[in-house]
Design brief:
By secondary structure, the protein is mainly alpha-helical. The protein has one domain: Arp2/3 complex 21 kDa subunit ARPC3. It has nine helices and two strands. Strands 1-2 form a two-stranded antiparallel ribbon. It starts with a helix and ends in an 11-residue tail after the last helix.
Amino acid sequence: MYKTTRNLVILTAFFATALVISNVLASKVVQIGWIEIPAAVIAYPITFLCVDIVSEIWGKKEAQFLVRLGFVVQVFSLVLIYAAVFLPPASYMVEFQESYAAVLGSSGRFVLASMIAYLVAQSLDVEIFHRIKARFKPKWMRNNSTIFSQLVDTTIFITVAFVGTVPNILTMILSQFLVKAAIAVADTPLFYYMTRHGSAEGPEE
């Protein structure tokens, strides 16, 4: 991926989509064997990958801007979600209002949890990424800075989002962290591929 405005816009779009969708998906808890994780785990790790790619190609300042933009996007999505929930339903939709509110309205708590965890973990990820980049040459080392920041993110998010509602908070934290760590390792080849041109300027189309 070359350092072009178009590519930055594309990454930002994927980042924002994954971030907002993860807040909606978070209300569903998935169980596979002993592993219990929010369904958001299929979307949220994408945000860390996008931030790492932006960090590598466009630099620390642009990555920090992307993190701040993500916070604004989450606040905006929360406003829209609650506006939709509180708007009066049509007469033939009244019977579905409770279910609609339960699915979307409940995401308010998850958005709050996500915003707190997000700001702390993503900012930490950018900082760790660039400290590793300054000291070590291998790309896989800075890409996997995500592993530590994901632990911080998971601990904060699960605690705020699920305390008092699920019986096994520690199991959920461990489960989600292990899955996120595995994804962080698995997406390393994609990080290598996406950043193969380094910060080389490309043609604007």
